[in-house]
Design brief:
The protein is an all-beta fold and 114 residues long. The protein is built from no helices and 11 strands. Strand 9 and strand 10 form a beta hairpin.
Length: 114
C-alpha cells in the first residue's frame, strides 16, 4: 500500500514558477514509476510527466521545455518544477505511483492568473 501526499500548489501569475512535491509512504518507492497528472474544470485528467525507477522521463507536449519531473528516492519524494506557467496550466495536479497497482494522491490546486 502506498499513500501519496501532494503539496506546493498555489496561485501564481503567468510567467511564474512553482515546485510541486509528492511525498510517498509505504515501502518500495524506488521501484515505482511516478507521475504527475492534472485535471482542469470540465476536462479529463491528463498526463503531465512521468519518471521511471531508472530515471527515464516522459512529458506531455504542452509542458515540454517548461516542466521538469525529478525524484529523490532517499526522501520518497517526487517533484514537478514548473516554469513559465500559463493560464492554461491551471488545474488540480495529482501525483501517481504505478507498479502492479496504481495509487493516487488527493491533488493540489495550481491557479495561474493572466
Amino acid at each position: 500500500q502506498v499513500q501519496l501526499v501532494e503539496s506546493g500548489g498555489d496561485l501564481v501569475q503567468a510567467g511564474g514558477s512553482l515546485r510541486l512535491s509528492c511525498a510517498a509512504s509505504g515501502s518500495g518507492f524506488r521501484i515505482y514509476t511516478m507521475g504527475w497528472y492534472r485535471q482542469a474544470p470540465g476536462k479529463q485528467r491528463e498526463l503531465v510527466a512521468t519518471i521511471t525507477s531508472g530515471g527515464s522521463t516522459n512529458y506531455a507536449d504542452s509542458v515540454k521545455g517548461r516542466f521538469t519531473i525529478s525524484r529523490d528516492n532517499a526522501k520518497n519524494t517526487v517533484y514537478l518544477q514548473m516554469n513559465s506557467l500559463k493560464p492554461e496550466d491551471t488545474a488540480v495536479y495529482y501525483c501517481n505511483a504505478q507498479l502492479i497497482k496504481i495509487y493516487w494522491g488527493q491533488g493540489t490546486q495550481v491557479t495561474v492568473s493572466s
